[in-house]
Design goal:
- The protein contains 4 helices and 10 strands.
- With 169 residues, the protein is α+β, with helices and mostly antiparallel strands.
- It folds into 2 domains: 5-54; 65-167, Immunoglobulin-like (Sandwich), CATH 2.60.40.
- Strands 1, 2, 3, 6 and 10 form a 5-stranded mixed β-sheet that branches. Strands 4, 5, 7, 8 and 9 form a 5-stranded antiparallel β-sheet that branches.
């Protein structure tokens, strides 16, 4: 049954006033759906990126190693510093280093943020370490830090280690 114009007008006049403005328009419905979809997408994207960062590994091979020739690291007993030399490969720049020195008594972690090594560059570092407190160095590990897409990554799998660090000559 199809309503005529006259019947529709009469129905509208008979409707209570509070019902006349309670309907949601199609434009408002589309706006609400789009807002809801954008909010859900934002939440899912943030959760996914957090999961990716948590499981992140170094995406490129750096070819980071101790400098060839001579002793890669030694301990200067006069200045109480660890002296080491490392080389970078040709794939990416290194923006800093994390140095772990494990002594007989305790382990110390030092950051060398000033250690910016360009592609195919070398870096000779000096970090303070008191062997009278921490004991002789039994193991030293140097881990490179790189920056990709404004994110700092610590490349654990590219770290280099050296066993016993001998006194400098």
């Amino acid at each position: 049954m199809i309503a005529t114009k006259h019947q529709v007008k009469r129905f509208r006049k008979e409707m209570p006033k509070e019902w006349k403005k309670k309907a949601i328009t199609a434009l408002m419905a589309v706006f609400l759906l789009a807002s809801f979809a954008a909010a859900v997408t934002s939440v899912v994207t943030n959760l996914a990126s957090a999961q990716v960062e948590e499981n992140a590994e170094c995406p490129i091979a750096i070819d980071f190693h101790f400098k060839r020739g001579g002793s890669p690291a030694c301990y200067d007993t006069i200045t109480k510093e660890i002296v080491f030399s490392v080389e970078n490969g040709i794939t990416t720049n290194i923006e800093g280093l994390i140095v772990n020195a494990i002594g007989l008594e305790k382990a110390e972690t030092m950051e060398a943020n000033q250690a910016k090594i360009g592609k195919a560059g070398t870096y000779t570092g000096r970090l303070s370490y008191d062997s009278t407190i921490a004991g002789p160095i039994r193991l030293m590990k140097i881990t490179p830090k790189i920056i990709i897409n404004q994110n700092e990554l610590i490349c654990l799998e590219q770290a280099v280690t050296i066993g016993r660090v001998l006194p400098c000559k």
